[in-house]
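Intended use. Records like the one below are meant for learning the mapping from a protein sequence to its folded structure. Do not use them to infer anything beyond what is encoded.
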Amino acid sequence: MSNHYFIGIPMSSSTKQSLVKWQQTLRDHMNYKVWTHPEDFHITLKFLGDSTDDKVRELVERLKSGSWPGPFTLRVGPAGSFGDRKQPRVWHAEVTPVDSLRELKETTETIVNTLGWKREQRPFHPHVTIAKKQAEGRSPKDSVTLFSQHFDEYIDRFHLYRIHPQSEQKYEQVATIHLGQEGKNGPTN
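Structure written out for the chain above:
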């Protein structure tokens, strides 16, 4: 049996709370089919898709023995979107990329590529999805000052997640990799 997986950076409790406020305000203006569960807020480093348990175990070993940058800080926000500006299909919080994030992304791509996953060809656009699959309404991004906020996010780890598409909270942490801890990452969580 196989499951779908991805590698991502979790958000802190304070950023999650702020993004929930964004969702509450956005709901007054737009109706989306999918609202990200607060525990699922993350920055995707690599979508892996379908994978076997054996391949995932090997991936976890490689990730845990990888050479990762030390912890760093990212700026999350302001609000952004994909698709039509007035009726975007995806609402998200922008993430300002820094060198450590780019290094984390590139090292992740290299490791997963050695195990048979294809390299991502699209440019890396880090973000945190708030809502997707737009149904109706008009974007309030330019008229509500709340959406111009940004938050400093301290990044000291990332996770391998298993996807449960039918659950309310869709992402389960399978393994945690701590930054700046080459060879010191413990067993799978």
